[in-house]
Design goal:
- This protein has 185 residues and is α/β, with parallel strands linked by helices.
- Helix content is 31%, strand content 21%.
- The protein contains 6 helices and 9 strands; from the N terminus they run E-E-H-H-E-E-H-E-E-E-E-E-H-H-H.
- Strands 3-4-5-7-6 form a 5-stranded mixed beta sheet, covered by helices on one side. A two-stranded antiparallel sheet has the order 1-2. Strands 8-9 form a two-stranded antiparallel ribbon.
Length: 185
């Protein structure tokens, strides 16, 4: 069953609507926006047991770029070009995985609140990099959000991400054209 959050189009493009981002930005005060604007896009730190680790929302070179666990090694090498870190922790796709590419460890811990694959809060524990998932009562969480959030689309969001998150196969199908670098959104 395709999810409305990752939708392949007939022309090969995908849409990943993010209406909540615009709404959330409008809820922030100018001083809060200034703090967020001042944060670095990536951070590299020396982590015991892992060496130098680069943390970035998407990829080392682009905060919107999509690469997946099944992206070919050549694609990963292209994405990692110019990065010296031994380990890269990325996200953006909200799909947990750990893999090697060009002798570098790549980790996507998944997502705590908007997972693809399986329900629950996904995260990683280091330094040996263990992917973890904490199961919680998604229905209760959805009800609390629906009762307390001011976001006008909260009911649909809770259904899409808490009650019925896209499976790994649905998400992979939706993200794959972007992950191959063959289309743009």
């Amino acid at each position: 069953m395709p999810t409305p959050c990752v939708t392949p189009a007939a022309d090969g493009h995908i849409t990943i609507p993010d209406p909540i981002a615009g709404w959330a930005a409008g809820e922030l005060r100018p001083d809060q926006l200034a703090v967020l604007d001042g944060l670095p896009l990536s951070v590299t730190i020396d982590v015991d047991g892992l060496g130098w680790v680069l943390f970035r929302h998407a990829t080392p070179r682009d905060d919107e770029e999509v690469v997946l666990v099944d992206s070919p090694p050549e694609r990963w090498l292209e994405v990692l070009a110019g990065t010296e870190a031994e380990t890269v922790v990325c996200g953006h796709t909200h799909m947990p995985f750990a893999r090697l590419a060009g002798r570098r460890r790549i980790v996507n811990p998944g997502s705590v609140g908007m997972p693809y694959g399986t329900a629950g809060a996904h995260w990683a524990l280091g330094p040996g990099v263990q992917l973890r998932r904490t199961v919680f009562d998604a229905e209760s969480a959805a009800r609390v959000l629906e009762e307390t959030s001011a976001y006008p689309g909260i009911a649909a969001w809770a259904t899409d991400f808490l009650r019925n998150p896209a499976s790994d196969l649905e998400a992979l199908r939706g993200f794959s054209p972007r992950a191959r670098g063959t289309t743009a959104t």
